[in-house]
Every structure is written in C-alpha cells, then in structure tokens.
Design goal:
- It is a single chain.
- Helices cover 60% and strands 12% of the residues.
- The protein is mainly α.
- It has one domain: Arc Repressor Mutant, subunit A.
- Strands 1-3-2 form a three-stranded antiparallel β-sheet.
- α2 packs across α4 and α3 crosses α4.
- The model has no long low-confidence stretch (mean pLDDT 92).
Length: 143
C-alpha cells in the first residue's frame, strides 16, 4: 500500500513568495494613492504613463496592462473625456486607432510620476548586475 506523499513547504520559498507579493502590493498601493491625488484610478494612471512612451493601439495596451481590450476602451474613453488622451489613426494602417497622450496628459503623468517614490523606481536599491540576475531568475520561474 502506497503511503500518501506529504509535501513540505520550504520556508525560504514561502518567504520569497511573500516578499514578491509585498513588492507588488506596495507598488500598486502607492500608484493608487498618487493616482487619486490627480482624480485618476490606478489603471488610468498606468495607461497614461504607458502612453507617454508612445501612442499604442488598444490591443497592445491590453497586452501590456494584462487586461481585456474592452476594459482598455473604457479607460481610454474616460481619459479622453478629461482631455488627457486622444484617439488618432495609425499612420501605417488607417483602419487602426491609436491612443495617444495629449500635452495635458503628459503634464499630468509627469506630476503623478514626481509624486511616486517606491513605485517610480522599485529596483532603485539594486545594482545593474543585481537587476539582470533578478530579471533572469523571474523569467526562469515563469518558464
């Protein structure tokens, strides 16, 4: 008769997973708090920050923010109503609409970023070499 396999939880694994969770929670909490100072949700603030890098189609925004395209449409609608984002045709495919930050949106994103500490640069305490090791280990964990 086979004995049931008992699995032991490695205390180091528990600690690492808890630390990863704490980093993610701290990042999101700070982002939400600062976004609220600008009458934005955290999702709106992250989308606005993303669009300061380049205009993007809705599908690509959804992939980068890891959410449904229908959610992105609603977020863009609300940001557009405030004059922070605009939709424009993609110069390479006029059938595709890009979401692009406006000048006012860029100013708001800059103010929001200036109000962040940990979330602005969560890896600030790590050297370049440590960041590379961390990236490689996380990528390996994810397969």
């Amino acid at each position: 008769m086979a004995t049931p396999r008992t699995s032991r939880v490695d205390p180091l694994t528990v600690e690492v997973v808890e630390l990863i969770g704490t980093v993610v929670a701290r990042y999101h909490e700070e982002y939400e708090r600062e976004a609220g100072q600008h009458a934005l949700t955290g999702s709106q603030a992250r989308l606005l920050a993303l669009l300061t890098l380049e205009p993007l189609p809705m599908r690509q925004i959804a992939v980068r923010l890891k959410c449904e395209p229908s959610n992105v449409t609603g977020i863009v609608d609300r940001l557009e109503a405030r004059g922070l984002v605009e939709r424009r045709p993609d110069p390479q495919d006029r059938r595709v609409k890009l979401a692009a930050v406006t000048d006012e949106g860029r100013r708001t994103a800059r103010k929001l970023r200036d109000g962040l500490s940990f979330a602005r640069e969560p890896l600030a305490e790590l050297s370049h070499e440590e960041r590379v090791v961390l990236r490689d280990l996380l990528a390996r964990m994810l397969g």
